[in-house]
Amino acid sequence: PFYARIGVREVWLVDPATRVVEIFALQAGGYAAVTDHRSVVLGVRLETVDAPKLRIHDGDAFTDV
Q1: Which residues 6+ apart lie within 8 Å of 38 measured at CB?
Q2: Residue among 1, 49, 17, 52 nearest 37 (CA)
Q3: Alpha helices, DSSP H only, in 15-65?
Q4: So what's the pLDDT on residue 44?
Q5: Neighbour count for residue 3 (Cβ, 10 Å)
Q6: What b/e readout covers 9-26, taking b as 16+ CB neighbours within 10 angstroms?
Q7: Left (φ > 0), alpha (ψ -120 to 50) or beta: where does 35 sit?
Q8: How is residue 15 annotated by DSSP?
Q9: Which tens digit of pLDDT belongs to each residue from 9-62?
Q10: CA 12 → CA 15, 25, 41, 60, distances in Å?
Q11: Which residues of 41-53 are buried (b: 16+ CB within 10 A; e: fewer)?
Q12: Which residues, in sequence order, are CB contacts of 3 under 8 Å at separation 6+?
């Protein structure tokens, strides 16, 4: 509720061991899960590959972290 109240548009939860990502977007004062793992705020898509790698897609480019 605090983040929604101050207008944080997206919240990412990343498991540090597996790098599995959950993205929640602010909608009508609360958060809803983003099922396609796409950040509207940053314009990137996230996916876990070869756990524990997190892949960040930015258009045709990607970075593994």
Answers
A1: 23, 44, 45, 46
A2: 49
A3: none
A4: 97
A5: 13
A6: eeeeeeeeeebebebbbb
A7: alpha
A8: -
A9: 999 999 999 989 999 999 987 999 999 999 999 999 999 998 889 999 999 999
A10: 10, 9, 11, 22
A11: eeebbbebeeeee
A12: 11, 26, 31
Length of the chain (residues): 65
Tokens of 21: 């990502």
Using alpha carbons, select from 39, 60, 64, 42 the residue that is nearest to residue 51.
64
Q: Phi and psi for 35 in degrees, rounded to 5?
A: -80, -20
DSSP run (H or E) holding 24? strand 21-27
